[in-house]
Amino acid sequence: MCGIIGYTGPLDSKNILLEGLSQLEYRGYDSAGIALCMENSQIRVIRHTGKVANLKEGCKDFAEKSHCGLGHTRWATHGGVTTENAHPHRAGRVVLVHNGIIENYHQLTTEYHLEDKLSSETDTEVAAWVLDSIYQGEPMEAIAKLVSKLKGSYSFCMMFEDHPGEIYAIRNVSPLVAAYTRSGSFLASDLTALIPYTRQYFVIPENHIVKLTSYQTQLFDLEKNEQQPEILEVNWNIESAMKNGFPHFMLKEIHEQPDALKNTILPRLVKGLPDFTDDQIPDHIFKDCSQIHIVACGTAMHAGMAARALIEPLLRIPVTVSIASEFRYEEPLVDNKTLVVIISQSGETIDTLAALRLAKQYGANTLSVVNVKGSTIARESDYVLYTHAGPEIAVASTKAYSVQLAALYMIGCRMAYVRECYSKEEATEFMKELLDAIPAMEAMLEKKEVVKDLVSHLIQKPDAFFIGRGLDYAFSLEGALKLKEISYIHAEAYAAGELKHGTIALITDQVPVIAIATQEKVFSKTISNIREVKARGAFVILLTKENAQVERGVSDIQINIPDINDRFTVFPIAVILQLIAYYASVGKNLDVDQPRNLAKSVTVE
Fold first, then answer.
1. What phi, psi does 595 have (nearest 5°)?
2. Per-residue confidence (pLDDT) for residue 184, from 0 to 100
3. Which of 291, 306, 318, 459 has the most CB atoms within 10 Å of its CB?
4. From CA 482, how far away is CA 239, in angstroms rounded?
5. Out of 2, 37, 297, 413, which one is annotated catalytic?
6. Domain 241-422 carries which CATH code?
7. DSSP β-ladder status, 291-296 and 217-220
8. To 10 degrees, what angle do helices 424-445 and 257-265 make?
9. Pair 355, 324: CB distance under 8 Å
10. Could you tell me the CA-to-CA distances from 459 to 455, 464, 468, 485, 537 in Å, in that order?
11. 363-399 residue pLDDT tens
């Protein structure tokens, strides 16, 4: 959630830190700061609330040279949005930045008698003062003692005034990556901050200390034994993390979906069949399981719900979708015959990671669908299926959702084939129809002006409702989430048949209802439900297929998608729902890419 950048080397650290924080703005934050180790070994700390632009303005007249420093963007957890609560935090000889939550900070405050020393409300400052209290001149020894006293999640990056030019870091759950280049040593919470300098990096393993100097980056375990990190390489370039002429990242990423699907599907298509050989995913995990449990949060969970609606009737085995934050506390029915599918764009979502670890304790086979190579969830899963969306900068997920769906659909097809629910011909036809969804998405991108016009009614209303049945209901959930998270319009999705069981009481004159009707077997039922809301004055936007027989007056606006197989309508429908949310946000003059209170990678519970 918060962003971290660190640098030590021959270049001007102030500029590197400020530009790195700009690259990390998309993660969500409310204040920013930098700490600079000066040539006289003193550390200067500069902090501001609001955007990184405010911090840059505050640093404009700062002319002193620095070649080592830390930067941070804070997403408030402990304490309000104030300069005092912003990072970095100074405590005696220590300056520290932190992502995560320290659960026992109250006990530590009492144990180390810190009440009179604290100038902020944060758990981070408590950790900094504890570190200063136990520091005896040897950083790694003090860091190891510090983390032995902590409960919670953290990525700590630290500088010590008596060790100028050095940066130390350690993490538990919250992600950190590091790299050494000819320009010096770098670390960050996200690859986007490193891409301008290097394509090679390593993920700092949990409970390991990394030491950065201007001439090397070293990794140690907690006993100070040096370790060799696994060097990874970024498979996208800096242009992928730029707007490239689009007014917002979200619109750019909506347009990138057809290519992202091709990149995810085509490398795994062998003789017309989905093939996971290169991913080292064996068929026996698909063949031997008696049930599937999909675990995810937010948009990824909605992808799982769409996959469940497809896979369960196809395989005729139970498929359960759980919200990751609830999974640990509901005593899930998971055993060694369960395939647990974990979905996370970042591969660092803390609730999802905790669910993965619990599933492994139950003895389940775990298969993760993630977008970030080397992420914690990817490394800890038994098997991993990487999606190839490239960097997704907008907080509201678009192309990550589409490629997650594509990956899950391919898993479903492979399972049907190896379990003999599909013949080779049926599996090949399935994949052909999945590929047909790509030009259908491209066709929907051509309708963005139509969508732009229709949102004029939406943005005048405080509420909106999405309705559908079966797969269409699963799509509706994601549409409602997109609308509320970036336009701040209260939006809810309902199974259309449930309207008469209470929800129809909320339908009043001109309230917007986005109705999705693409599933032939329930089409007439859905149309009847649409008539019910229309009879009560709703303003209906109908999303259906080109060949659908719809009488005049059923809707106020109708948008048609191409006539593709019902199972794959989620892909073009996703584009339309994303564009509706996007243009609603633009129409209200909101911050599309960085909606309030939200963060891209959720690494706190």
1. -65, 155
2. 92
3. 306
4. 25
5. 2
6. 3.40.50.10490
7. unpaired
8. 160
9. yes
10. 6, 10, 22, 14, 18
11. 999 999 998 887 889 889 999 999 998 878 888 889 9
Sign, CA dihedral 217-221-227-230, equals: negative
Name residue 502's amino acid: G
Note whether 327 and 361 are within 8 A (CB).
no
CB 400 within 8 A of CB 387: yes
2 is catalytic: yes
What is the pLDDT, as a whole number, of residue 597?
65
- CA 122 – CA 89 distance, rounded (Å): 9
Contacts for 344 with CB less than 8 Å, ≥ 6 apart: 296, 297, 300, 352, 353, 368, 369, 370, 375, 377
**Cis check: omega of the bond before 88, within 30 degrees of 0:** yes
Query: Domain spanning 444-592+596-600 has what CATH number?
Result: 3.40.50.10490
Strand-pair partners of 540: 513
Between CA 515 and CA 347 the distance in angstroms is 33
- Long-range contact list for 38-41, CB < 8 A, 24+ apart? 38/64, 38/65, 38/66, 39/64, 39/65, 39/66, 41/161, 41/162, 41/164
Q: Which two tokens stand for residue 144?
A: 């190891």
Is there a contact between 139 and 158 (Cβ–Cβ < 8 Å)? yes
- Residue-wise pLDDT for 521-551, tens only, equals 988 888 888 888 888 888 999 999 988 888 8
Q: What is the CATH number of domain 3-234?
A: 3.60.20.10
Cα separation, 139 vs 212, whole angstroms: 12
Q: Measured in whole angstroms, how far is the alpha carbon of residue 192 from the centre of its chain?
A: 14
In this structure, are residues 196 and 208 in contact, taking their beta carbons and an 8 Å threshold?
no
CA–CA gap between residue 214 and residue 270 (Å, rounded): 47
State how far the Cα of 419 lies from the Cα of 288, in Å rounded to an integer.
Answer: 9
Q: Position 602: which residue type?
A: V
State the pLDDT at residue 60. 81
Please state, in angstroms and rounded to a whole number, the distance separating the CA atoms of residues 596 and 599: 9
Query: For the chain, which residues make up each domain, given as ranges?
Result: 3-234, 241-422, 444-592+596-600
How many CA atoms does the CB half-sphere of 596 hold within 13 Å?
Answer: 7
User: Please, are residues 143 and 209 in contact by the beta-carbon 8 Å criterion?
Assistant: yes
Q: Which two tokens stand for residue 19?
A: 């530009």
Cα(273)–Cα(262) distance, integer angstroms: 15
pLDDT tens digits, one per residue of 322-365? 999 888 888 888 899 999 999 998 888 888 998 999 999 999 99
pLDDT score for 28: 67
Residues of the chain with pLDDT under 50: 603-604
In angstroms, the CA 411 to CA 423 distance is 15
Three-state secondary structure string covering 11-61:
CCHHHHHHHHHHHCHHHCCCEEEEEEEECCCCEEEEEEECCHHHHHHHHCC
User: Identical fold at 241-422 and 444-592+596-600?
Assistant: yes
Residue among 211, 373, 484, 600 flagged as catalytic: 600
Beta-carbon neighbour count of residue 144 at 10 Å? 19
